[in-house]
Amino acid sequence: MNENLYYTIFRIYRKYLSIIIFTIILSTSSAYSRPNKIFINKIKNNNIYYSLYVYSGENSIDISDLYIWDEAEKDEILQYFYNQEKNLRILLLKNGCAKLKNSNNINNAELKAQEYAIYKKIGLWNNYDFSNEESIFTNFSFTKLFIRIKYKLFDLWNLFIQYCLKIIVTLSTIGVLWLFCEKFLKKFYKKFFIERRFKLFIMGEVSSGKTALRNNLLNPNITKNELLDLSPSNKFSSKKRQRHIQIGRFEIFPEIADIPGSDFGGIWDNIIGTSYQGWIFVLSPLRKSGFDENRNKLDDIEFDKKYINIQLGILNAYLRGGLTSKHNRRKPKILILFISKFDLLSEVKPDDSSAKDATKIIQNLFKEHIDNARFAARQANIEFEVFIGSSIEKWNIDQILNFISNKLYGF
Ligand SMILES: Nc1nc2c(ncn2[C@@H]2O[C@H](COP(=O)(O)OP(=O)(O)OP(=O)(O)O)[C@@H](O)[C@H]2O)c(=O)[nH]1
Ligand SMILES: [Mg+2]
Question: Is the pLDDT score of 365 beyond 60?
Answer without folding.
Answer: yes
